[in-house]
């Protein structure tokens, strides 16, 4: 049983997130803030989305067309955010980190100038754009962060290789929460298929999320060309990150898979996200690198069976009882695992139920809020 906190004084904190709705981080922010507020912590969100919640403030824009406008938005948005936080007499801020670049460094410098205690959630120990600065990482982790949060043991072990003992003492493992409370509505598979105007007699598998090189979409496309199961289609849904979909489309054309692959390229709203997960037999995560995955937790929250590459962060969540793993980069093994999953639907349903039970208990936002509360004191 999870016990509520006994709070002597109300703690104030702010989550500053310029990424927000652009990559589904709005749900993370809302879940964390709501869980903290339920435990008598005065948490606010400052991001790029609007909400009916009175504790959400918008100082950033959702879309910026040029590098200059993006840089301007980040700088002005943060200054406005910090002014708001200072006005509300908040002393600690929670910042998401996906890279260690100049823009990230400037944000933490501003926090330091405003004398805020900075809780840095390091989602990616190394940025996947490969543009991180070792010097900026050193300064950000050593001198500009009061506490550092990572989502799993793998990430902490990676940090061990790059930081000294003093920094490691302020690193805490707090899990990424589930998305069970964020489902717009639970739809049956048939209902979801009809709403997406798909065919009821066809079986669908799903690749969902930002399309990055490290997500291994090309591995999945090649594996799909080797799948023996009939009457099955692959759905690719997401937005290309720092790239276009062109190279994947060329691969689809080369393998003559155009009639077997459905694409939804672009931003996917929450309603259509839930329809996609509900309509598919399974979600495949063929990643080459990962530190943690919101897509995995989304699939499990929707009770959609999962197949994922055998990377260490996935192994911390997935086991034989709640999912299937394949040898990373091995297209033949992935094809065989997809065939197995399609031909054993009841086993996959059982695995998805076990996955749902796991994340509803161990990846519960109330549990997570308790961990954050200890750090914020």
Explain what this protein looks like in three dimensions:
The chain has 377 residues and is an alpha/beta fold. The protein folds into 2 domains: 11-178 and 364-376, Glycogen Phosphorylase B (Rossmann fold, 3-Layer(aba) Sandwich); 180-361, Rossmann fold, CATH 3.40.50. It is 42% helix and 17% strand. It is built from 15 helices and 13 strands. The protein has helices at residues 25-38, 67-87, 102-113, 134-142, 153-160, 165-168, 189-195, 217-224, 246-254, 270-279, 294-301, 312-315, 331-343, 345-362, 365-376, and strands spanning 11-16, 41-47, 56-58, 92-97, 117-122, 147-150, 171-173, 203-208, 232-238, 261-265, 282-285, 306-309, 324-326. It has a 7-stranded parallel sheet with strand order 3-2-1-4-5-6-7, with helices on both faces. A 6-stranded parallel sheet has the order 10-9-8-11-12-13, sandwiched between helices. Strand 12, helix 12 (312-315) and strand 13 form a beta-alpha-beta unit. The relative contact order is 0.12. Mean pLDDT is 93; it is low at 1-8.
